[in-house]
């Protein structure tokens, strides 16, 4: 069974630009979550989607947004990029959400803002 | 903010030895999961233990959970060089579901 697929794997953007990251969950998984990982802050939760509805959101500014499509694929968008947005962005999928089942992560998208 | 703290922050052992990592958290949980990460790549799921379970095994891994102390431990027996990685605990809190809150991680180095 294919795992969680994130694209692109690497991205370099300039301050002020916007970026869209994509995540395809494991087949049959309806919950998709996004996390940001930085050396200083560690792994932090961004948001979670289930059946196209956002069920939980972390403490990030409104520049960070996401959505989920009817096929469970998800995208996250960061607008007006700042240097501090440089991070590894990880997507996780699970059947119904992490309260009941394991979450499986993709390889991540490494975003560098210059 | 991070729910959990892990200790030690770094651990260096010889191949064949056992490695024990500890995780503490602050609020009541639905479950606790352990993950491994190699060199800034994706997280690999190792084991999930529910709040009503006290111990689980998976191959060379043994996880314990003490909800009264709000702590968990991960034991890797007979370690191998390939076990070198960062290990994270993650909790799903009862008061804020559908998200995992990660600890700060333990960097494990297994020397051949």
Distance between the termini of chain B: 36 Å
Average pLDDT metric of chain B: 92
CA radius of gyration of chain A = 13 Å
Largest sheet of chain A: 7 strands, mixed
Share in β-strands of chain A: over 45%
Q: Helix tally of chain A?
A: 0
Provide structural commentary.
The complex is a heterodimer of chains A (114) and B (112). Chain A has strands at 5-7, 10-13, 19-24, 31-38, 42-50, 53-57, 64-68, 74-78, 87-94, 104-105, 109-113. By secondary structure, chain A is mainly β. In chain A, strands 2, 4, 5, 6, 9, 10 and 11 form a seven-stranded mixed beta sheet that branches. Chain A has a four-stranded antiparallel beta sheet with strand order 1-3-8-7, with no helix packed on it. In chain A, a hairpin with a 2-residue loop joins β5 (42-50) and β6. The model of chain A has no long low-confidence stretch (mean pLDDT 94). Chain B has 112 residues and is mainly β. Chain B has no helices and eleven strands. Chain B has strands spanning 5-7, 10-14, 19-24, 29-37, 43-50, 55-58, 61-66, 71-76, 85-93, 96-102, 106-111. In chain B, strands 2, 4, 5, 9, 10 and 11 form a six-stranded mixed beta sheet that branches. A five-stranded antiparallel beta sheet of chain B has the order 1-3-8-7-6, with no helix packed on it. The mean pLDDT of chain B is 92.
């Amino acid at each position: 069974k294919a795992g969680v697929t994130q694209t692109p794997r690497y991205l370099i953007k300039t301050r002020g630009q916007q970026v869209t990251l994509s995540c395809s969950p494991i087949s049959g998984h309806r919950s998709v979550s996004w996390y940001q990982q930085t050396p200083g802050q560690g792994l932090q939760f961004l948001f979670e989607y289930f059946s196209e509805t956002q069920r939980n959101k972390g403490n990030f500014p409104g520049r960070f947004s996401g959505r989920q499509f009817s096929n469970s694929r998800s995208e996250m968008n960061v607008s007006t990029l700042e240097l501090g947005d440089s991070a590894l962005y990880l997507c996780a999928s699970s059947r119904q959400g992490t309260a009941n089942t394991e979450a499986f992560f993709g390889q991540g998208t490494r975003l560098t803002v210059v | 903010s991070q729910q959990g703290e892990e200790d030690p922050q770094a651990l260096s052992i010889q191949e064949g030895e056992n490695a024990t990592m500890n995780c503490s958290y602050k609020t009541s949980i639905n479950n606790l999961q352990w993950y491994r990460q190699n060199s800034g790549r994706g997280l690999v799921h190792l084991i999930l233990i529910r709040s009503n379970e006290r111990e689980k095994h998976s191959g060379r891994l043994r996880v314990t959970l003490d909800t009264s102390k709000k702590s968990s431990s991960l034991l890797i027996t007979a370690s191998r060089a390939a076990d070198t990685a960062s290990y994270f605990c993650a909790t799903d809190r009862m008061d804020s579901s559908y998200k995992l809150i990660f600890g700060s991680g333990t960097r494990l180095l297994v020397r051949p």
